[in-house]
Amino acid sequence: MSLSTKIYKGFQTAIPSEIRKKLKLEVDDIVEWYLDESGTVNIEFRKKSNFEDIIGIGKTPYKTDAVKMKKRVSKGEKP
Questions:
Q1: I need a labelling partner for 60 at 20 to 30 A (CA). Which of 10, 22, 46, 78 fits?
Q2: Helices (H), the chain
């Protein structure tokens, strides 16, 4: 599939509706642009992360206390 869009003032453009619908894109989704050595542009889309998405990603094998850690850091100690 080949689609084209216009670049507007401020270098803004629109994602064609066929692509938005097929990829289920929504407002606040992220567009990532990659330019390789040969000058080829690759585009990827990802959902914007929110707090609920990242809860529990950084688990530790031991219990932590955020208040104590913050106090230690503010005193210049290692957490």
A1: 46
A2: 17-23, 51-54, 66-74
Position 49, amino acid: S
Q: What is the pLDDT of residues 33-54, one digit of tens each?
A: 999 999 999 999 988 877 777 7
Q: Cα–Cα distance between 50 and 54 in angstroms, integer? A: 7
Beta bridge partners of 45: 31
pTM above 0.70? Answer: no
Tokens of 49: 């992360």
Report DSSP state, residue 62: S
Burial of 15 (0-12, 13-18, 19+ CB in 10 A): middle
